[in-house]
From TrEMBL:
This is HDIG domain protein. PANTHER family: HDIG DOMAIN PROTEIN, METAL-DEPENDENT PHOSPHOHYDROLASE. It comes from Indibacter alkaliphilus (strain CCUG 57479 / KCTC 22604 / LW1). It comes from the Bacteria. Residues 43-132 form the HD domain.
Amino acid sequence: MELTHDLKRSDFGSKDDLGSIMTESEAMQLLENWVENEKLVFHMKQVGHLMKVYALKKGYDEKEQHLWFVAGLLHDADWDKWPDEHCRKIIEELEARNQDPRVIKAIASHGPRFFGVQPESEMDKMLYAFDELSGLIHAYSLMRPQGYESMEIKGVKKRLKDKSFAAQVSREDIADASQRAGISLEELIQFVIDNQLRS
Ligand SMILES: [Fe+2]
Ligand SMILES: [Fe+2]
């Protein structure tokens, strides 16, 4: 398959910037400047939240949790203004701002089929794993009168099988991401149901 947004790069950021990471309010400011689409902002907040909670549950320290959070929060920041240059724009912006190379690499590898960059670190893999799946589960919550309440794995799996539901969500990527993360789809779904940011 043709790589539509091939970054044609494999190195991101600089090792000198390890540990250099913007604050939450700086990241929110960037989103405010770049993203008008509120649904997209919400999607990024959901993914950022899932990333942070995952890192927390893994026992990582606050600095590491923040790293994961910022990667999730900014992963689609350029999609609204520059869809054809996704995710090159945000990568260049973060490099210009001397941000931690691990965050930049995670963002660069959140769509290996498109960007041609493989998720390698645990953070890379979890960003890829949460991205599409959290979108589908959110869409499912919106069609349920009770939202996320009493949502079950089997309901989500039914929506995954129904290709006409949230048709833009790639089932192929969800399965691929789960395999790469080494976490079963069921476990990922349950984690998203339990921890996803609501409304
Ligand atoms: Fe994306
Ligand atoms: Fe996304």
